[in-house]
């Protein structure tokens, strides 16, 4: 029940609204008991009139009127309570999504490296729906059930203690059977949720990589994988259903036996003249009302168990350690000049050996640096450390002499412009993507697009900069998406510029034009470039050659080109490749 306690705690901001709903529920529960009580007096008045003509017609109509008023008040209060319950449900959903979303924003990058986005969304949706279901159960069933049970047993005890005892015995019997039923259900639900997460995560991956799936004609295999997971889910559900119906049979059998005993007592006592007809009708109605809390109890315990298992991963995520700050920077001042220093940096991912080993360098303000080396050498990891996506386990990174560990993430990133190797775009407009995280006018956005050699193709779209690009920019070509990212970096105009294969998707002509724009953009900025096409880094001040997590060489491009080593080898491979291509066309 520990997750139920967490649900109650997490809803603390909504306690006031819960209190109002609870008060209305108490009134409704009391009002619902008036009708059976009033029916007793109505029946007794009719019996008096039938037996000896001493019935009071005014009293009869008064009781009928009071019963009608009680029912109407119950209807009105229930409608208000239900409306407030819907409002509570909406507010709770909003609050939970905001809380979950805020938490994910503060988690380390390593968490997202190890989790599928589809799985995270599935856990979010399941957690919210089960918590919402529990809150609805709490307001609509738990409190009313408890109050109705107490009032019903009390009234039965007042008129006939035997029926009160029998009715009361139903509750522990029903509760115990239902508890074991829902416990077995919950144990299987945890297993089912795991397969559901796997299935949802895979579907998300397939949709995101649908071109790869179709390109390798792997549709049937992917379908079989999902089909297998769904078959496992159905198998678990079948076991849940079988267990539930066995317990349900036992539960209903015990209910029928005890109800038979109650009917025998009530009818026999009335037959003996120890109960009036009105009292008999009242007791029968009260027993019938007692069945409603019993049936509700089954639903309640099922909802509690579902909330317990369904919210498990939700709360596990909320309890993860937040490694990043999450607050709006007020009165932000951009750094005029930036200096970055790595001092004996060691870094590894959660499940890897050291990716960076004793990396040390210092980049002066306005200096242009290129990181060159084989794939997997650690170049992109250095970029990620500069952005504080990860933290080294040994050594220090400094920005203008201040340790990264003392600087908020937002302070570092606000002073950084970046272009990723992957085309990171949102499914909004070109305008929104270029100005993402920034306040910019239409003219400033267009100017950035022009500098990135992107406006020529943007203005050809019917809606221009208001054209929607689709999920991850699917409606744009690779080169177009890359240039939108470059325009975003140009507009940001931060003192630190990070380019991770920024021109990898451009053709030679576009690359030359963008490079010209980049030369102007890079003036007076600290620039770090990752590039496999060495033609793009010939004008930098220094090149760091990275291999197996270490800086194995450094120097000016011309200097490294003349010195035997990885850089000169890579340069020679590219030159020879270009010469071979030109010879094939008899151009060399």
UniProtKB/TrEMBL annotation:
Family annotation (Pfam families): ABC_membrane, ABC_tran
Domain ABC transmembrane type-1: 20-306
Topology with respect to the bilayer: Multi-pass membrane protein
InterPro entries, per database record: AAA+_ATPase, ABC1_TM_dom, ABC1_TM_sf, ABC_transporter-like_ATP-bd, ABC_transporter-like_CS, P-loop_NTPase, Type_1_exporter
Subcellular location: Cell membrane
SMART domains given in the database record: AAA (SM00382)
Residue intervals passing through the bilayer: 14-31, 60-80, 141-159, 165-182, 249-271
GO MF, one example: ABC-type transporter activity
Transmembrane helix in keyword set: yes
Keyword vocabulary terms for this entry: ATP-binding, Membrane, Nucleotide-binding, Transmembrane, Transmembrane helix
Primary location recorded for the protein, binned into one broad class: membrane
Name recorded for this polypeptide: ABC transporter ATP-binding protein
Species of origin: Candidatus Dojkabacteria bacterium
């Amino acid at each position: 029940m520990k997750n139920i306690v967490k649900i109650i705690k997490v809803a603390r901001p909504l306690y006031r609204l819960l209190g109002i709903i609870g008060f209305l529920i108490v009134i409704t529960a009391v009002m619902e008991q008036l009708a059976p009580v009033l029916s007793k007096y109505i029946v007794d008045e009719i019996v008096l009139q039938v037996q000896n003509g001493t019935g009071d017609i005014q009293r009869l109509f008064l009781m009928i009127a009071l019963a009608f008023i009680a029912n109407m008040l119950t209807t009105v209060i229930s409608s208000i309570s239900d409306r407030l319950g819907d409002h509570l449900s909406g507010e709770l959903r909003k609050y939970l999504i905001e809380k979950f979303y805020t938490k994910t924003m503060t988690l380390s990058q390593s968490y997202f490296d190890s989790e599928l986005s589809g799985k995270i969304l599935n856990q979010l949706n399941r957690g919210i729906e089960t918590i919402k279901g529990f809150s609805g159960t709490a307001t609509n069933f738990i409190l009313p059930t408890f109050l109705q049970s107490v009032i019903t047993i009390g009234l039965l005890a007042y008129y006939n203690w035997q029926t009160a005892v029998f009715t009361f015995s139903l509750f522990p019997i029903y509760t115990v059977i239902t508890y074991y039923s829902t416990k077995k259900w919950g144990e299987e639900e945890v297993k089912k949720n795991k397969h559901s997460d796997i299935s949802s995560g895979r579907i998300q991956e397939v949709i995101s990589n649908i071109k790869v799936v179709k390109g390798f004609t792997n549709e049937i295999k992917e379908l079989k994988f999902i089909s297998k997971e769904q078959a496992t889910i159905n198998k678990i559900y079948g076991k849940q259903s079988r267990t539930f119906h066995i317990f349900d049979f036992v539960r209903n059998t015990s209910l029928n036996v005890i109800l038979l005993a109650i009917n025998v007592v009530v009818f026999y006592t009335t037959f003996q003249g120890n109960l009036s007809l009105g009292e008999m009708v009242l007791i029968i109605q009260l027993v019938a009302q007692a069945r409603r809390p019993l049936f509700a109890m089954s639903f309640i315990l099922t909802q509690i168990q579902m909330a317990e298992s369904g919210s498990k991963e939700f709360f596990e995520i909320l309890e993860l350690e937040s490694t990043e700050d999450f607050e709006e920077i007020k009165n932000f001042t951009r750094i005029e000049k930036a200096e970055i220093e790595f001092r004996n940096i060691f870094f590894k991912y959660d499940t890897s050996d050291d990716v960076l080993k004793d990396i040390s360098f210092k980049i002066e303000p306005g200096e242009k640096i290129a990181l060159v080396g084989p794939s997997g050498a650690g170049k992109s990891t250095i970029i990620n450390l500069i952005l504080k996506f990860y933290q080294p386990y040994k050594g220090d990174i400094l920005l203008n002499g201040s340790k990264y560990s003392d600087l908020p993430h937002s302070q570092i990133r606000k002073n950084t412009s970046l272009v990723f190797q992957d085309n990171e775009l949102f499914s909004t407009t070109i305008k929104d993507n270029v100005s993402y995280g920034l306040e910019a006018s239409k003219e400033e956005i267009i100017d950035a697009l022009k500098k990135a050699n992107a406006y020529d193709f943007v203005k050809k779209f019917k809606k221009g900069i208001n054209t929607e690009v689709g999920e991850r920019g699917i409606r744009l070509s690779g080169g177009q998406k890359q240039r939108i990212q470059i325009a975003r970096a140009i507009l940001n105009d931060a003192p630190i510029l990070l380019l991770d294969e920024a021109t990898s998707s451009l053709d030679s002509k576009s690359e030359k034009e963008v490079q010209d724009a980049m030369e102007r953009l890079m003036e007076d900025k600290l620039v770090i470039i990752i590039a496999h096409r060495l033609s793009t880094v010939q004008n930098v001040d220094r090149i760091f050659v990275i291999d197996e997590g270490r800086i194995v060489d450094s120097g000016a491009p011309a200097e490294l080109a003349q010195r035997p080593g990885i850089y000169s080898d890579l340069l020679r491979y590219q030159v020879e490749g270009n010469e071979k291509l030109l010879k094939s066309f008899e151009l060399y």
